[in-house]
Fold:
Amino acid sequence: MRKVETTKIILPENRIPEYWYNVQADMPNLVDPPLNPQTQENVGPEDLLQIFPQALIEQEVSQERYIEIPDEIRRIYQQWRPSPLFRAHNLEKKLGTPCRIYYKYEGVSPVGSHKLNSAVAQAYYNKREGIKRLATETGAGQWGTALALACQMFDLQCSVYMVRISFEQKKFRRSFMEVYGAECIASPSSQTRIGQKVLLEMPDTPGTLGIAISEAVEDAMGRDDTNYALGSVLNHVCLHQTVIGQEVKLQLEMVDDYPDVVIGCCGGGSNLAGITFPFIPDKLKGKNVRLVAVEPAACPTLTKGTFAYDYGDVAGLTPIVKMYTLGHSFTPPGIHAGGLRYHGASPLVSQLYHDGLLEAKALGQKGVFEAALLFARTEGIVPAPESSHAVKAAVDEALVAKEEGKARSIVFNLSGHGHLDLAAYENYFSGNVQDVNYTTTDIAENLKNLPVK
Ligand SMILES: *Cc1c(COP(=O)(O)O)cnc(C)c1O
Structure:
C-alpha cells in the first residue's frame, strides 16, 4: 500500500486579500502607452469609454500599489477563495527529487479555472455603471464560461464569440456557457461586418482569438447598452488575478517556506501575472526568486515573437499595444491548449520579461501531455492542457535540481482542471498530438504586417 500524504495548505476565509496588487507601482519601466489604431496617437479615456466602464479604465492606467477589492466581490470570492495550495508529495516521490513542489489550485472555482477571479470583477463594475450586456470572445471556452457565470450573478446578458474550431470540437463548453444563460456564437460569424469579411476571404478558417476579439469589439461598439470584456492580456485583468500570488505568499509562510522558482503557463498572461506579480517587489529588493512563463512551442509569443506595437485583434479595431507578438495575423495550428493560442502577450508581462524580471520557455505538446498524465496519476487532479505546461516546467525544474543535488522550493499555478478537455487527452492517447516548431523565418513572415510606429 502506498502511503498517501496530503499537505493541503488552506487560509481562513477572512484572509482573502483585501487589495489587488498593482505591479505598475513597482516595475522599473512602465509599458509604452497604447495607441489609437486609426490615428496612432495616444489612446484617450474617451476611446476606451465606448467599450469599458470607467472604473476598469482607471485600473488599467493606475499606478497605485494596492487597489481595494470591493466587499461585494470579496463575498463572491468566498465561494472558492482562498484556493488551496497543495504540496505535491506523491509527485516528488515519483520523481525522486529532493525539491518541495507546491501547486496553487485554481480549478476549485465553479467554472474550473482562475478566469472567474477577473470575470466577477468585470461584471461588477459594468453593472455598477449601468451596462446591460457584455460581449466577449473565447478560445477554448473557459473565459466565456467564467463571464457567463459572472453575468448571471449580476443579471447581465452575455454574448460570447467562440473561435470556430473550439465551437465545433468543444460542444460541452458551449453547453456550459448556455447553462449559465449566455449566447454562444461561432466565430467568424455572419453577425458582424468583420466576421462576414473573414468568411468571404477564408470560408474554411478555424477562426482565431484575434478574429473573435474583433467581432466582440465591433458588437460592443455598435450598442450603447453593451460593453466589451477581455479575459486576459489587459492590465486590469492581470491586476484582478493577483489574489492568487498574494494567497500563495501567505500559504507558504504558514509552512515556513519561500519559493526559489514560481511558474505559470502563459496565453495572454493573466494567470502567470496572478501568481508571479506579487513576488516582483521581493525580487526588486534582491530576493533570489525566479519567475517563469511557460508557453506552447506552437504559439511561442515570448520566446520567438518580437517586442513591438501590434493590434490585439485581426481587424485592427483594438488599440495598438506594445507587447511581445507573433503578428496579429498569426494563425496557430489547432493545438489542444486552446487557451494558449493568442498571438500576443500582456503588455505588463511583456515589459517585465523584456526587463529580465520574468523568464520564458516554450514546450512541445507531447512532453506536456506526458507530464499531465504523471501529475494526474500521482496527485489525482487532471490538469487543463494549458496548466499542464506549468506542470511540465515544474517537473523539469525538479529533475534539474535533482541532478544538481539541490532541494529547491518550486511553486506552480494549476490554473484549471481538464474535466472538459478529455477529448484532448484522447487525442494524445490515439497518437494524434504532434509537436510543432517554428523557425524564425516562419515568424518573420507574419511580423511584416505590424502597424508602424
Ligand atoms: C485561459 C486559460 C489560460 C491562459 O490564459 P492566461 O491569461 O495566460 O492565464 C491558462 N489556463 C487556463 C486553465 C485557462 O483557462
